[in-house]
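Please review the protein record below. Tell me whether the encoded fold seems credible here:
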Amino acid sequence: MKGPSVAQFLSEDHFEAARVALAADQGFQGAIANVDFSAQFDVSGGPGGDVVYYLKVSGGDTETELGPLEGADVTVSSDYETSQAISQGDLNVQMAFMTGKIKVGGNVAKIMMHQNVINDYARVLSGLDIEY
């Protein structure tokens, strides 16, 4: 019998686990009520190269997938080490931004307005069983 699989960080399995966890998390679902927001995340220097993924919240629905998102409200760029630290819950998004570990482009006012969504997204993903 096969036990639960551990997803590799920033893999398709990671995002499948993320979609399930986000849908089941009442705090995240509450945070996205009446929110229309999208962010693309560009992660550089990973073991398999650079990775692009996104989070799109609209009408109470969530999409998080590998790949670029045309017309994203914001683009968040970081190196792999920073992304991993945020994913593991060792670094919060605000501290990463304030210390220059992540760069934000696009509609910065919109990400500030919806920072609770980004924080809850990071919180839920930090609880996943991920291999780094």
Remarks:
- Residues 12-24 form the longest helix (13 residues).
- The longest strand covers residues 37-46.
